[in-house]
Amino acid sequence: MIPIVGLVVGVALGLWFQPDVPESLRPYLPIAIIAALDAVVGALRALGERRFDDRVFVVSFTSNVLIAAFMVFLGDQLGVGSQLSTGVVVVLGIRIFANAAAIRRRIFHA
Amino acid sequence: MSEVDRSESLLTQRAEGLLEQIAEQALDDDYYVVRPDSPTRVDRLLTGVATACFALMVTVAAVQTQLDRPSSDRQRAALAEDVQVRQDVQSQRKATVNGLTKEVAKLSAEADQTDPALAALLARTAGSDVSGPGLQITLAPAANDGGPGDVSDRDLQTLANGLWSMGAEAISINGQRLGTLSSIRVAGQSITVNYRSIEPPYVIAAIGNPDRLKDRMNDGQLGQYWQTRADRTGIGFNVKTKDYLQLKKINEARLKLSHATVLEEGSEQ
After folding, report:
1. CB spacing of A10 vs B26 below 8 angstroms
2. What tens digit of pLDDT does each residue of B45-77 get?
3. What is the pTM of this model?
4. Most buried of A65, B29, B32, B245 (most Cβ within 10 A)?
5. What is the ipTM of this complex?
6. What residues of chain B lie within 8 A of the CB of A37, using their CB?
């Protein structure tokens, strides 16, 4: 229940304030979203397997976002920002697909 | 492989490749740790906050992308408009250039053909072909020794200058027209006019009023001097009036100024 409320509140806040993302933070937003999506899909899978734990979700969510942002920052500083971003997206994408496949198997038994 | 012993087996067994390993460990291992205690309220609230953060990020990114699009469109439109304006300006200027070029061509053609002052100047400075009545003087040297029986470059110079002072409008020696940069010099055995050597007999053609030229020549000091010299040394000195003489214009190279430039308007010409 609380997560759904959080979801609604987040969307409402975003639509209400329409905050302008500072230019310096723009490269981090897409990667942070991918990382957060990874944590969320993982949480959904754990929920389906009845292993969901709030603390694990919060910690994985926070660390995913922070580490992804840090890697983009590091890549920018090293001059390989796009390559490192690609690597991060590939790894997180594989995880997202694997978790989504597990959810799909559980729901549809296929 | 059952889910329970998977975490243990992963510790001992390496996945074949890095990507497979990632796919295998897609779910955080911590979820597999069994926790006896049930989650607290704070934990649940934090979950809500994390979800809200996620939703906020997605929404903000979407809104940002939506907002950015019109501005980039505006920029592109402004740039396109800029390009269009500059192209218009360029084509306008091209048209102006074309018009001015035509005008210049037309004006210079007119000036060349119709300006009588320019035509007169060109005729006097050997810049154009001229024809008309005049005087023809033939000088045939009696000797080739540089003595009184020979004709020197100085003789030709004084004759030419004399003809100018008598009112000749155009002079040529053996077909070499005399202009402002012409020279009559001796070079080796022969005399050169405009740096072209000429051979005797020397034919000096001068366009002008033929009768007046002839009178001045015969009555003047120059004509008498030559008559006397011809009588004494046997030089052939023959003065004839001609109804029609045609003198070609001077070689282009002797017509061009290399260093002198025209003074500004209002200065002495």
Report:
1. no
2. 888 899 999 999 999 888 888 887 777 788 888
3. 0.46
4. A65
5. 0.88
6. 54
